[in-house]
Design brief:
Layout: E1 4-6, H1 16-20, E2 40-43, H2 47-56, E3 69-77, E4 83-91, H3 95-107, H4 125-130, E5 156-158, E6 166-168, E7 171-173, H5 196-202, E8 207-209, E9 216-222
Antiparallel strand pairs: 1-2, 2-3, 3-4, 5-9, 6-7, 6-9, 8-9
Helix pairs in contact: 3-5
């Protein structure tokens, strides 16, 4: 399997072994890194990832072929102030850009609680959101709509969704996110316009759901690609 490696700095133990044999539980702290060091990689879907996606997050009729998706691993700062390895599946056209975004987030010390593939939750977006899980690809309809979400192309990422819930009228998703409807809260991992997370995505042409008028989807960033 051939992977593209970007901005790799070799330090204690590095990530190679864990990434060569990916699992759905890549949550163990790795060797400590300085704040400005980032390790990220992308490549074709590993067989184990593909098999799980065929069970849970991809199905015939999805708007993107599995061959057009890439498995991405990135280092990120956890809520425990340790650096972890997270995993995402995104469209091949945005894979390198996604690495750059998460490099920015680590450098800015923007924390992320966990980053597992949606298949860890059997493709259930509600379970993933309630677990405050950052995720990308999932072939599903947009919330409250009959059209495919940009997640179905691997061109959307939800960041810390419990702290950054979807809100439309009286609907809050996940329901546990009701405690974070006050967007003036000072909470690590909460996204606000102009902060480091917002800037990293929006400066590259991604749209933020928190800027929408008809509803607010504070966790959600999407793009139409390069």
């Amino acid at each position: 399997m051939v992977f593209r490696i970007v901005s790799v700095v070799l330090v204690l133990g590095c990530f190679g072994v864990a990434w060569a044999a990916p699992t759905l539980h890549a949550q163990e702290p790795v060797a400590e890194l300085e704040a400005d060091l980032f390790q990220g990689m992308y490549g074709p879907l590993p067989q184990t990832v593909r098999e799980n996606m065929l069970r849970y997050s991809w199905r015939p009729g999805c708007p993107v072929d599995l061959e057009d998706l890439r498995y991405v691993t990135v280092s990120y700062l956890g809520f425990d102030n340790e650096v972890h390895v997270g995993e995402l599946v995104v469209h091949k056209d945005v894979a390198e850009e996604v690495l750059a975004i998460f490099s920015d987030l680590l450098a800015a010390e923007f924390p992320i609680e966990r980053m597992r593939l949606i298949d860890h939750y059997q493709g259930d977006d509600g379970l993933s959101m309630a677990d405050n899980n950052t995720s990308a690809f999932n072939c599903r309809k947009a919330t409250g709509s009959d059209v495919f979400s940009r997640h179905s192309w691997g061109m959307a990422i939800d960041i810390n969704p419990l702290l950054n819930p979807y809100m439309k009228g009286d609907v809050v998703l996940p329901p546990e996110g009701l405690a974070y409807m006050d967007r003036d809260k000072t909470v690590p991992g909460l996204i606000t316009a102009g902060d480091a997370c917002w800037e990293s995505f929006v400066s590259r042409g991604w749209q933020w759901g928190g800027d929408w008028n008809s509803l607010k989807d504070y966790q959600h960033f999407e793009t139409t690609g390069p």
